[in-house]
Amino acid sequence: MEIVILAVVIAVVVIGALGGLVVGSRRKKQLPPPPPATPDITAPPAEPHVGEEAETPRDETRRTIEEVDLPDGGTAPATVEEPPVVEELEIPQIEVPEPTAGRLVRLRARLSRSQNALGKGLLTLLSREHLDDDTWEEIEDTLLTADVGVQPTQELVERLRERVKVLGTRTPEELRALLREELITLVGPEMDREVKTEPAASKPGIVMVVGVNGTGKTTTTGKLARVLVADGRSVVLGAADTFRAAAADQLQTWGERVGAHTVRGPEGGDPASVAFDAVKEGKELGSDVVLIDTAGRLHTKTGLMDELGKVKRVVEKHAPLDEVLLVLDATTGQNGLIQARVFAEVVDVSGIVLTKLDGTAKGGIVVAVQRELGVPVKLIGLGEGADDLAPFEPEAFVDALIGD
């Protein structure tokens, strides 16, 4: 029995060993590669038929040899890049302003075109055979209409009546000479009309320009820079009008045209700070004159007028102002006198600049504003040109009023 059991165990072991050998040999064998895909066989082109079997030829688009893109050997044509064009920076040309000597005489024709009504009207009235009370009233009305003012008009009429009575005969030449003399006296030839811009030992001349919006204040500041440059002065411009859009750009453009340096600050910034920096740079650069353009505030705004006074006080921390020029629109008449009065109370105006005298302005405003403030008209504007700002000369002005 034991022998039988042993035989069975041996048989089982042998069968298991044989089974393992068979499985290992199968694992070592590689699977055959998949059969290749059936290739696409393209049928050869049909042979051309001839004779009766030939097909009718089809219309095909044919290209000439010029239209065929020929191979170039695989080399792409080299692209030659042109060097970038470097734009030259435009350097503003420095202009040479017109000399100021006798400028008003040269502009006399322009002034006389709008002012002759006053002079010619007076000469016509004085040339009448009988100068009765009605005629003298007409003379007074003519002077008042020309914005001369009540008190100056009464003084002029009284002197004219007395001198015409003494004169007796009145030839046109005598009347013209008489009227010219009296008008020059009325304008005030004895007043000091020099714009004080002389530099001192340690500081430049300092000029502050004030006025209401629309009077041409910034333009006048730029034109005054041209006047000073024409007289051989070096100028620094202070763009302290920080509230009006593009005011600083406008002033800087005026400065660049004559080579004047412009000091400016951020839009809406502190005007007093800009004015202070302008005077500081003027001293550091050794400039002859510093021109400060201030904001054109309405004269009815008390707070803003106080701020204008602040600008003046801040500037005077460097040095006292040499000039405070008030720019007035000559066409505003009595309204201009109200403006002048308020500005004079705030900043101690030392001189007047009358603009737009070439338009509908009446020449009598020169007399009225001088009487109102007790300060002289120093400059007048006679047009839109860059050199149309002229020093005021009483004799030339009166000659333009009464004509030749």
Automatic annotation (TrEMBL):
Its main location: membrane. Its EC number is 3.6.5.4. Residues 376-389 form the SRP54-type proteins GTP-binding domain. The keyword Signal does not apply. Residues 26-83 are annotated as: Disordered. GTP binds at residues 211-218, 293-297, 355-358. It is a peripheral membrane protein. It is found in: Cell membrane; Cytoplasm. It catalyses: GTP + H2O = GDP + phosphate + H(+). Keywords: Cell membrane, Cytoplasm, GTP-binding, Hydrolase, Membrane, Nucleotide-binding, Receptor. It comes from the Bacteria. Residues 49-66 have a biased composition (Basic and acidic residues). HAMAP family: FtsY (MF_00920). Part of the signal recognition particle protein translocation system, which is composed of SRP and FtsY. Belongs to the GTP-binding SRP family. FtsY subfamily. NCBIfam families: ftsY. Involved in targeting and insertion of nascent membrane proteins into the cytoplasmic membrane. Acts as a receptor for the complex formed by the signal recognition particle (SRP) and the ribosome-nascent chain (RNC). This is Signal recognition particle receptor FtsY. It comes from Streptomyces lancefieldiae.
